[in-house]
Design brief:
Layout: H1 3-24, H2 30-46, H3 50-57
Helix pairs in contact: 1-2, 1-3
């Protein structure tokens, strides 16, 4: 799996987890989805993605977007 796909998969998990937790545990969990969406938006404009840095450090091979 490339770094790009790992970051996208992680972002999808964060957003879906926030939605599921907000429906099943407490409505304030929706902030997790908001945080995930905001992070994706800022990464699109700045190119800075903390998740990509973590995945790179654990050895995930770079893709086209996060070099």
């Amino acid at each position: 799996m490339s770094l790009d796909r790992a970051v996208l998969a992680f972002a999808g998990i964060v957003v879906l987890a926030g939605i599921i937790l907000s429906l099943s545990v407490h409505p304030m969990w929706i902030w997790l989805s908001g945080f995930g969406g905001a992070n994706m938006l800022q990464a699109a404009f700045t190119g800075f993605c903390p998740a990509a840095m973590v995945f790179r450090k654990i050895g995930v091979k770079p893709g086209a977007a996060f070099r």
